[in-house]
UniProtKB/TrEMBL annotation:
Residues 149-279 form the GGDEF domain. It comes from Caulobacter zeae. This is Bifunctional diguanylate cyclase/phosphodiesterase. It comes from the Bacteria. GO terms for molecular function: cyclic-guanylate-specific phosphodiesterase activity. PROSITE patterns: EAL, GGDEF. Residues 288-544 form the EAL domain.
Amino acid sequence: MSFKVAERRIWDATTTLEALGAAEVALWHWEPEADRLRINGAARALGLSPLAPECSSAAFRALALPQDRAQAEELLRVREAGAEIVVRLRMRSGGVCIWRGVWLEEGVRAAGVIAPEVKFAASGKDELTGLLDRRSFIARARERLTHDGVHELVVADLDRLRRLNEALGHERADLVLAALGSRLAAAFPEGSILGRVGEDEFAVLCEPKGYEPAELLRTALEQPLRIAGFDIHPTLTIGAVSAEGGEDAPEAAELVRRAELAVEAAAANGRGSAAAYGRSMETDGLSRLALEADLRGAIGRGEIIPYFQPVVRLSTGALSGFEALARWIHPRRGLLPPDEFLPLIEEMGLMAELGEHMMRSAGKQLAAWRRSHPAVGALTVSVNLSTGEIDRPGLVHDVAQVLAENGLPRGALKLEVTESDIMRDPERAAVILKALREAGAGLALDDFGTGFSSLSYLTRLPFDTLKIDRYFVRTMGGNAGSAKIVRSVVKLGQDLDLEVVAEGVENAEMASALQKLGCDYGQGFGYAPALSPQEAEVYLNEAYVDGAAPVKARG
């Protein structure tokens, strides 16, 4: 079949531009050496007409919103051939656009396509509630924040969603979330931006005029529900943040982050609380993030080291050994107490690594003291096993290796285990403890009296030491119940032929009272806090020269 040329459908440049315009898409072409950016297609619809058909890099930067200048620079940055570009930009005269492209020749030219952000987005709806999903909520909020005026972003966290899932099942718990979504949509005036921004988080961005958004949200969502025959009384933890709209408005994702930071601060005060964002929260959050970043590798760099608290024989005052306690010597912040970093180590899954490091470091230090101070005799060092570490693969092997490499006798390295760790699986714990004992470790049951262990298990587990929790020791002078517990634990230790160590000894009066009860050992601030290795060696020298470890007359 033949066609006349006039009848042929030719895909020429004009047709291409018409197609791009109809699809609200434009093409861009950047030549850094010529300082020329060319734009063809739907420039007007995208708010790029001041730049079309071509402009300089300076003009391009000037049209971008101030908070997006870094993204504009990223688009113009010269890269190697084949490098892909994906940049999200807001321009003064238009909406939010995604610029995609590739470098065709290194340092010579790059080209790609420009389209509204919604062209690249999915449906943007949360299927369960019908509200905007997190990505679409942020996109809509970003657009809204370009408008002048005061905007308020409120994020509400549904308390105890996990409990609801466990009690009702996921399908019924989903009905709760769907009902709350409907209530939220009905409560706020038209024009408010509503979203489900997390599994249990709802968010609202609005311009409050005549109402308080957080109160309106709480009133709407905390009404009782009846789901599958169950009465549900939802409670919310709420965080809020305000912002001025316009060219200098904060990035929407950043605003959501601030509101969620306020939710975390409110949660610290209990369920159903509320908090407004403040810069102090930002400082705390950044400090925590910085601490987490510094923690990675801190153990390997030797920043976390054992400090040693003396353990003293009460009958003679002789130094018996030390308990090794983790301390972080931060390169900028100095000595950090354990409550500032141990919870983070646990969250980051580094407790097993820390436990092994502490055991090896403490064993090495003990061996050095025993070599350089023959008079120390049977000096021991105790190391705490963190929660769950008793199940760590290789624990028994590591204990045997530490003892063998450092030439330490059986019982010189003591491992302290908590009651709760034992009672999670007493039968398995008994097997592991027996293996640790056979490998040469001494075993102490730590914080005895605070748990709910069965005494029948205690008779079957290979412990050689009981440690009385410091609370009972410190309060035994003024609390009859604490005094009875201390007396009972000491008697139990004697009956089972176990050594008993009292923690929290603060003065000579306490030490004397414990000795009269028949308690074997004491440790606490009355003797010394946890000491650096150098300070502990000085303490060791003084204790053996004087013949007894000094104890404070009063705490």
